[in-house]
Amino acid sequence: MRPADVAALAVESLRLHRLRTAMSGVAVAIGITAVLALTGLGDAAKRYVVDRFSAMGANLATISPGKTETSGSLMAGGWGGRDVTLDDAEAVRVQVPELRAVVPISLGSAAFRYQDRRRDVYVVGVTADYTGLQNLHVMRGRFLPPGDMYAGGSVVVVGPKLAREVFGGEDPVGRMVRIAQRRFRVIGVLEPKGRALGFDYDELALVPVATGLRMFDQTNLHHLMVQASDPGAMPGAIARVKAVLIRRHRAEDFTVVTQDALLRSFRAILDALTAGLAAIAAISVAVAGIGIMNVMLVSVSERIAEVGLLKAIGAEPRQIASLFLTEALLLSGLGGLAGVAVGAAALLVGARIWPNVPLAPSGRWMLASLALALVAGGAFGLAPARRAARLPAAEALRGKR
Amino acid sequence: MSAAPGLAPAPTAHRAPETASDPIRLEDVSRVYRLGESEVRALDHVTLRIARAEFVAVMGPSGSGKSTLLQVLGCLDSPTSGRYVLDGTPVEHMSEARLADVRRREIGFVFQSYHLVPRMTAARNVELPLIIAGVAPAARRRRVRDALAALGLASRADHRPDQLSGGERQRVAIARAMILEPSILLADEPTGNLDTRTGDEILAVIEGLHRGGLTIVLVTHDPRIAARAERLLDMQDGRIVGERRLKETHA
Fold first, then answer.
1. Contacts of B101 in chain A (CB under 8 A)
2. Running along chain B, 251 residues long, what does each successive block of 10 average in pLDDT?
C-alpha cells in the first residue's frame, strides 16, 4: 500500500464519524494547549530572570565572607572565617591586573530623614565603579566621585523612588539629609531600574563604602564585586583573586560566585520547573490518548466484517494495523495541531494583556507538544490496531470476534 | 489432464506426486472448532481435487461445512489436520503475510452479503484490492473503469452500496473479486439474497468468467443454481457424502 493511499483511507473512515472524531481531537487539543500554556509560563519565568541578570554588567563575580559548599547560593551563609575587609579589596585591586573593576560593598539599614520626613532605607556602601557593574545611570546630579576606596565623604546618591517619597516635587540634589544621625549631602538621583533578585534599586541610598562601614561600625564587607575585562580573562582573574585572599586569610574562608554560575543554576532550576509543568500537562495528553484508544477500539469492533473483507482481498496483518494506526495518528495529529494553534494564540494574547510578562510561544515547545500528541496517538492506537490485525479472517467475515 | 479428474483416490491409495497439475488438492483435511467444552468438526477428513478451470458447486444443509470448506480453500482458515496444496505449494506452514499474498494473487471471493464497504462508492470498493496491492493511481482508475464497464456498472461507479440494487451490489463485489485477475473464484451463496431473475443474471456473469478460464467453487442451497456447475459435491456433517459429474470440464 502506498502511504498516500493509507492516509486517504484513514481520512475516509474518520469522516464517517465526524462528531466522534472531533471530540477525541478536541481532547488532544485541550491537552496540548495545556502543555503549551504551562511551558510558556515556565519559559517566561526563565526569560524574566535571565533578562534581569543581563541588566547587570557582564563578567562579574562576587566574593562573600564565609565558606559555603553549595555554589550558586546568593547569600553566603556561615560565619567561620575572617572578615573580607577594605584592605582585602585594595589588595585584590592592586594584585589582580586582569580586573577592570573591584567594588567593595557594605550594607546596613538606617533611618533617612529630610526635614520632617523619615523613611527606613538600605544604605549601600559602594565606589564609583558600581554604576558600571550594575548598569546604573544617574538621572540628575552625579554619582559618587571616583578615587581612593578609603575616601569616605558624607555624600549620598538616592534611588528615584526614595527621592520621590522623601523629597516630593523638590529637586533632591544639593539637599542636606540625615542618615543614622549623620549629615549627608545628596549629590545625585539614579534612573529607575526596578527590582532585581528581590532588591529594589530604586529605594537605595548609596554612600562611599568607607563611610558606610564607619556608619555601622563594620569592618566586614557584605561582599566584594569584581569585573574582568573580558570573558576569557575571567577564570584566570578568579584564580588570582582567590590566591590573594587565601594568602591574606591563610584559609579559603570566603565564597566566590560568578554570575555565569549563578545564571546557570537559575536556568537549571527554571528548566526543571518548566519540565515539571510540561509533565503535569502531559497527563492530560495521556488522558486524551486513552480517549483515542477508546474511539479506535469502538471503531475496530464496528468494522470487524470490514477487517475480514480486507483479509479476504489479500491485506496483510501489517497493512491492516497500519490503517488503524494511521487513523489514530491522524486523530492525535489534528488535535495536536489545533492545540498548538490555540496554545500559541493564548500565549500571544497573554503577552498583550500582561506586557511585563515575557510570554511568547516557543517553536521548540510547539514541535515537542505536537510530537507528544503523535506519540500519545501512536502509543494508544497501537493496541486497537494490533487487535484489528490479529482478528481471525474467517470469524471476522462473519462479523464475529 | 483434461478429462474427469474426479474425486481423489481414497487416502489409503498411493498419493499423487506434488507435481500434479490440479491447482486445488485437499488431502484428509479436518477443521475442528472448540466451542467451550464441545468440539465442532466442521470439516471431517475431506479429500478433494479440483482441476484448473473447473466449475464445482457445493450443496448441503446449514452447518454441513460448506462455508468452512470455502474458507479453507481461500486460505482464510487453516486446516486443523491434513494437507492443502494450492498450485503445488502446501499452505499449512505459510505465514500470515504469505497467506495474504496468496489470497491477493490467486483467489477472488464473492459473498452472499456482498461485503461492500458501506462508506465507499462502487468504484472505490472495486479499487480496494488494487490499493492493497500497491498499484499506482492512474493504472487503478483505468482498471476500475474497465472492470465496472465490463459488468454493466459504468453509470453506477459513484454510487454507494446503499444506492445500488442487490444485483448491482453483487456485480460490484464480483468486479472487486476479479480486479486482480485471480485464477480461482470462491463464491459463498452469491445468489442467496437475490430474486430468481437477478440470481440468474449473477450466475450468467459467473459462467462467463468460467468460460474465460477461471476455476470456480460455488456454495449454494439452490439446486437450480447447482445444476449449472460441471461437478456437484454434497456435504453433510463436514464430509463429502456424494459427488456427481454434470458435464465434462471445459477448457
1. 314, 316
2. 41 42 91 88 94 94 92 92 92 87 94 94 97 95 95 95 96 96 95 93 95 95 92 95 84 49
pLDDT tens-place string over residues A130-139: 988 888 899 9
Residues of chain B numbered 74-133 and touching chain A (CB < 8 Å): 74, 76-77, 96-97, 100-101, 103-105, 109, 111, 115, 117, 119-120, 128-129, 131-133
**Residue A308 φ/ψ, nearest 5 degrees:** -60, -45
Grid cell at residue A199: 532588591
Measured between alpha carbons, how far is B13 from B16 in angstroms, rounded to an integer?
9
Q: Which residue has the cell 581612593?
A: A148
ipTM value greater than 0.90: no
Name the nearest CA neighbour of B46 among B73, B86, B75. Answer: B73
Q: What one-character-per-residue DSSP string does A279-320 give? A: HHHHHHHHHHHHHHHHHHHHHHHHTHHHHHHHHHTT--HHHH
d(C-alpha B85, C-alpha B102), whole Å? 12
pTM: 0.74
Q: Count how many pairs of residues, chain A against chain B, have C-beta atoms within 8 Å.
A: 71
Calpha distance B247→B125 (Å, rounded)? 35
| Half-sphere CA count of B176, side-chain side, radius 13 A | 32
